[in-house]
Design goal:
The chain has about 210 residues and is an alpha+beta fold. It contains 8 helices and 4 strands, in the order βαβαββαααααα. Helix 1 links the parallel strand 1 and strand 2. It is globular, with a radius of gyration of 17 Å. It binds glutathione. The site of glutathione has 12 residues, from helix 1.
Length: about 210
């Protein structure tokens, strides 16, 4: 299997954090990582468009030649191939809670932060658009408030005592903000503490560069 990625880009980073966390738990998954340089616009090359006509990352190329082009589907696929140790949860309820938090971290945080970055100071040259940035800042607010509230019970990670895919997605999103010096946790003390705790761990340090 080949995983096409680029550092700091949040969707590939989410998958790479998943792999690092899984490996840290003893579940190393063998695959080759291939860099597609988004800054150099290699995602628009005929070679990459042949892999993924949307011209995005990540892409997981299976040994059969089939390709997966959605980050969470890539994680789901790898999780099915290697169910242990689980990166969601051992029973249906904890699995669902972790997946729900992942969806909130992805659709409610990663996506808005991505739009804010790209309409404020896009690393790949998208035009600035303050109105769109303001719209996504509003969309971000209730999602961060929800995650902040989830941490009220003192749990160390988003879904409980152990790291799940939800933590990977949130960490990938926040790194992308830091890349453009955008901070989102100033009024979220529990999330700020979570961020420090999560980033202090070896698996996170192996992937996150900012
Ligand atoms: N829904 C896709 C989104 C993928 C995506 O937007 N990837 C970004 C990097 S985080 C990308 O490749 N952008 C390249 C571009 O916009 O040119 C997923 O979750 O995998």
């Amino acid at each position: 299997m080949k995983l096409y990625t680029f550092p700091i880009a949040p969707n590939p980073t989410k998958v790479r954090l998943y792999l690092a966390e899984k490996a840290a738990l003893g579940g190393k998954i063998a695959l080759e990582e291939v860099t597609v340089n988004l800054i150099e616009r290699e995602q628009r090359s005929p070679e990459h468009l042949a892999r993924n006509r949307f011209g995005t990352l990540p892409v997981l190329e299976l040994d059969s030649g089939a390709r997966l082009i959605e980050s969470l589907v890539i994680i789901d696929y790898l999780e099915r191939l290697h169910p242990e140790p689980t990166m969601f949860g051992p029973d249906p309820e904890t699995w669902a809670q972790a997946r729900q938090l992942e969806r909130i971290a992805d659709l409610g945080v990663l996506l808005p932060i991505g739009r804010i970055v790209h309409t404020t100071d896009s690393p790949v040259g998208y035009p600035a658009n303050p109105a769109v940035a303001a719209y996504y800042r509003e969309r971000l607010r209730p999602n961060l408030a929800h995650l902040e509230a989830e941490l009220e019970d003192g749990r160390p990670f988003l879904a409980g005592e152990r790291v799940t895919v939800a933590d990977c997605t949130l960490a990938a999103a926040l790194q992308f903000g830091r890349f453009r010096k955008l901070a989102f946790l100033d009024e979220r003390p529990r999330l700020a503490a979570w961020d420090e705790r999560y980033r202090g761990r070896e698996a996170a340090k192996a992937v996150l560069v900012l």
